[in-house]
Hints:
Layout: H1 2-42, H2 58-61
Region (Disordered): 1-20
Amino acid sequence: MDRDIERLEGRQREQQDQITGQGAAISWLVVDRRSLVRTIRKAGLDPPLAKPIPERARPYLDHIDV
């Protein structure tokens, strides 16, 4: 029983690390995209229109001001 609990706790830590990493990657992508849009506008061009955010993704992007 204790071994099962330890295994589950280890798996939980791995999943939390993965989620944290995915959040960092999403934040980086948002910042990088904004930087690219700024660069395009400074060059006097219009950036491509953003694609709509899928409903399924919206709850996960609220905290990063997308």
